[in-house]
Design goal:
6-stranded parallel beta sheet; single chain; 11 helices; alpha/beta; 7-stranded parallel beta sheet; 32% helix; globular
């Protein structure tokens, strides 16, 4: 198949530091190439990919030192380039929310759009009611709830390359928090859990400008003078295996409808169980009592973090490999691509024989 992957331009592909969507697109793209498909990636120029790269910006927006820049203009330029080349592809897979809808109305039936963010926001329902012809993929079933009426084609959980994460059979006796310092991520809960247990907590986290006041007024006072808490700051992929693998448990104490939460499966890839509050996608990712614990209160979280070292770390890694590898994600998307092509009108079919691998290593042909 000839597949276009269209990524947001905020982070490099994959991100050099923090970043979720662009990281998923990077791993999906490479996995599709490894499965034998012809993939073109539309991204910023520093992207590292095994696909054919179409650079649409000199560098990703967030780390671009230019003081004045327009994220809207850069994405519109990218979409114009994708539209210019649209006839080159069998499937155009967008990861850019809804910004492409007005441009691609004429060929909506050859597009697929994965929504990566929260959907419980004002103004979103009107968009998806206005453009119902665009097929959508959710990254968790829970993510769909605010837009249950939308044109959902599938739920595909994220996946990461198994070889990128080193399994750690033993921890080094600390708890971990990885992600972003923000009210909805509840780093304050993580600090409270560790403090109540008298265990060390290492925090590898990004502080956005929008969350600087929250960090300075709420989180930093909890860290300062607390010998159990070590604030590391933002880390890259090459540091995650050591950081996550050394932890007894990853604390995921969120207080918002997290659509997925990549850090959960990154921890699992290292064999590290996850203590997660029952919110958003956590019930779909964590197998309670097997790959971690699902909790509802701070007291339950403290007890769960204390029990986490008793879980089988090899079983945690095995669950990751079965459910959340990049190859597993790519095969699930190939099923969705195959359904999309199979439903195209006969007159618009452009492939004579498209062979799409399925989960069980079977295949089927879509013939014109």
């Amino acid at each position: 198949m000839k597949i276009a992957q269209v990524t947001p331009l905020y982070e490099a592909v994959p991100p050099k530091l923090y970043g979720g969507t662009e990281r998923v697109v990077a791993h999906l793209t490479d996995a599709l190439v490894d499965l034998g498909h012809e993939v073109t990636l539309f991204a910023s120029a520093e992207a590292q990919t095994r696909a054919s790269l179409v650079p649409v910006r000199d560098q990703a927006i967030r780390l671009d030192p230019a003081p004045l820049k327009s994220d809207l203009a850069s994405h519109m330029s990218m979409l114009a380039e994708v539209l210019r080349r649209a006839d080159d592809f069998d499937v155009i897979h967008f990861h850019t929310d809804m910004i492409h809808f007005p441009f691609f109305e004429r060929i909506a039936n050859k597009t697929l759009t994965t929504l990566h963010g929260r959907l419980d926001m004002k103004d979103l329902p009107e968009v998806y009611e206005h453009w119902p012809q665009f097929g959508l993929v959710s990254i968790s079933n829970d993510q769909r709830r605010p837009l249950a009426f939308a044109n959902w084609k599938a739920t595909v959980h994220h996946g990461m390359p198994a070889e990128q994460y080193v399994f750690s059979p033993k921890s080094r006796g600390y708890l971990a928090f990885l992600g972003r310092i923000s009210p909805e991520k509840r780093p304050d809960r993580a600090i409270e859990i560790a403090t109540k247990l008298g265990k060390r907590l290492k925090m590898a986290a990004k502080v956005d400008a929008a969350d600087r006041v929250y960090y300075e007024t709420r989180i930093k006072p909890m860290i300062d003078g607390n010998p159990l808490i070590e604030f590391i700051g933002e880390i890259g992929d090459h540091q995650k295996s050591e950081f996550l693998g050394g932890a007894e448990a990853l604390l995921f104490p969120i207080d918002w409808p997290e659509p997925f939460g990549l850090v959960m499966i990154e921890a699992m890839a290292c064999g590290t169980p996850v203590v997660a509050f029952r919110c958003g996608s956590t019930t779909e990712v964590i197998e309670d009592g097997a790959t971690g614990f699902l909790v509802d209160t701070l007291e339950q979280a403290v007890a769960a973090a204390d029990r986490a070292p008793m879980l089988d770390r090899e079983a945690v890694r095995a669950c990751f490999e079965l459910r959340f590898s990049a190859a597993a994600m790519a095969r699930r998307y190939l099923d969705v691509y195959g359904d999309l092509l199979a439903k195209k009108p006969y007159a618009e079919a452009i492939l004579d024989d498209v062979v799409v691998p399925l989960h069980e290593d079977r295949s089927f042909a879509v013939s014109a």
